[in-house]
């Protein structure tokens, strides 16, 4: 079925270069802060003396904020508009980063989790603003291409974050773990306090960058745009008019697909360090594994920029991604050692085009419901909270490798959405 185009409320002659650069900078921040979690998990596991399941609360606290805050974020955006909403999101993220200071000084895990939740709250507001903004900044047929460009900014930062944060927080981690076994309680506490303090300077710098970016956006010329039909006073033939958001079946199926996708994306990026370490690979080596996953995603995004929509459609890209995800998941389960870790890393390649493809397919033709639908899809990011926690719980009983079976049905549903689900209820 041919996709219906979405127009924008700013003149076509205006260049989209400046808005794309600004949003690209925001996506870079998203990526750095988000994928630093892959290093925070093993770091906090040592510093706060946690089990694997407890350590995975890092992803839970971070991503569950999307479920809590997405619809309030939609309300905020209706009041503030995209530009002021982005500024507020950055300020909230800066506050969350600064909470890491008392968390580290007291070495209190719950305070770390609070900081992560506040950062996630700011990100929920930013994601609710930025994703639809990029989607409706041009024709719907090329939305996946624009989102892929944003993905390069996001995952480029995601590749850098584990290298920087790992070098700071997990430097000589294996030697430290061995040393801790030889110390008495007082000596152990002193070493762990020193380890916990390593997180302070990086997160102060993150907070400063976030506040500077908020100030930059305040003085920028970033325009307000709307999806065609979003203004109730304007009639449009390109909008699938319905009385309620609940009547858009393809949107709700897209929400489920996005929920499952974010879960498997976080599994590939944030659990790979713990998984590699569980196989006997040293943390000094495993701390770089998240970067490999991000490099796989970067390769996928580059392909999307070149191929969509010139050579393949968004739905076709989604089909190939889902099939690759199934095959790579099975590869991780049925192989061993570094080969199994390789298959987890290469899931980044399979995952890259899923988000860029699902988002425009799910909000196509929603008109005045675009912001509410965007908030719904942002709730789907909570999949990153629940699936990794489920993986960790299953891993404690069946082993971390066998726990990766939960990814297979997720990719199967994404494949269904790519083939049939995105068309369900699109036209009456």
By CATH, the architecture is named Up-down Bundle
Q: What low-confidence regions span 5 or more consecutive residues with pLDDT below 50?
A: 1-13, 232-237
Dominant shape: globular
The amount of beta strand, in percent, is under 5%
What is the tally of beta strands?
A: 0
Q: Helix segment count?
A: 20
Mean pLDDT across residues: 85
**What is the CA–CA distance across the termini?**
13 Å
Name of the CATH homologous superfamily: MFS general substrate transporter like domains
Radius of gyration: 21 Å
* SSE string, helices as H and strands as E: HHHHHHHHHHHHHHHHHHHH
Number of self-contained structural domains: 1
CATH class membership: Mainly Alpha
Task: Summarize the biggest pleated sheet.
Answer: none
Structure classification: mainly alpha
Task: Classify the helix fraction into a percent range.
Answer: over 70%
CATH topology: Growth Hormone, Chain: A
């Amino acid at each position: 079925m041919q996709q219906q185009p979405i127009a924008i409320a700013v003149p076509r002659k205006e260049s989209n270069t400046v808005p794309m650069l600004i949003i690209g900078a925001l996506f870079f921040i998203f990526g750095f802060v988000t994928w630093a979690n892959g290093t925070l998990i093993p770091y906090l596991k040592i510093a706060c003396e946690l089990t694997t399941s407890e350590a995975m609360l890092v992803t839970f606290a971070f991503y569950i904020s999307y479920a809590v805050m997405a619809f309030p974020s939609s309300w905020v955006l209706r009041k503030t508009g995209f530009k002021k909403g982005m500024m507020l999101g950055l300020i909230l993220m800066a506050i969350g980063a600064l909470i890491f200071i008392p968390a580290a000084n007291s070495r209190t895990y719950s305070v770390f989790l609070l900081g992560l939740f506040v950062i996630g709250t700011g990100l929920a507001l930013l994601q609710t603003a930025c994703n639809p903004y990029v989607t409706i900044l041009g024709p719907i047929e090329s939305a996946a291409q624009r989102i892929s460009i944003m993905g390069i900014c996001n995952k480029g930062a995601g590749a850098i974050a584990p290298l920087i944060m790992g070098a700071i927080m997990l430097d000589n981690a294996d030697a430290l773990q061995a040393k801790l076994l030889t110390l008495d309680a007082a000596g152990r506490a002193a070493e762990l306090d020193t380890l916990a303090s390593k997180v302070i300077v990086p997160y102060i710098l993150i907070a400063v960058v976030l506040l500077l970016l908020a100030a930059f956006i305040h003085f920028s010329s970033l325009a307000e745009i709307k999806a065609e039909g979003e203004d109730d006073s304007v009639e449009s033939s390109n909008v699938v008019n319905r009385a309620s958001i609940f009547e858009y079946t393809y949107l709700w199926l897209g929400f489920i697909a996005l929920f499952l996708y974010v879960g498997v994306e976080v599994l590939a990026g944030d659990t790979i360090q713990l998984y590699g370490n569980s196989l006997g690979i040293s943390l000094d080596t495993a701390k770089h594994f998240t970067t490999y996953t991000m490099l796989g995603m970067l390769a996928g995004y580059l392909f999307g920029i070149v191929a969509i929509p010139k050579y393949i459609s968004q739905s076709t890209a989604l089909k190939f991604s889902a099939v690759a995800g199934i095959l790579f998941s099975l590869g991780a389960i049925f192989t061993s050692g570094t080969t199994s870790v390789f298959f987890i890393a290469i899931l980044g390649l399979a995952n890259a085009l899923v988000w860029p493809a699902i988002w425009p397919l799910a909000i196509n033709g929603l008109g005045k419901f675009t912001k509410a639908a965007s908030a719904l899809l942002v709730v789907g990011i909570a999949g990153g909270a629940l699936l990794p926690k489920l993986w960790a719980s299953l891993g404690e009983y069946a082993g971390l490798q066998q726990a990766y079976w939960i990814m297979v049905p997720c990719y199967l549903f994404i494949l269904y959405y790519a083939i049939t689900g995105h068309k369900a209820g699109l036209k009456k």
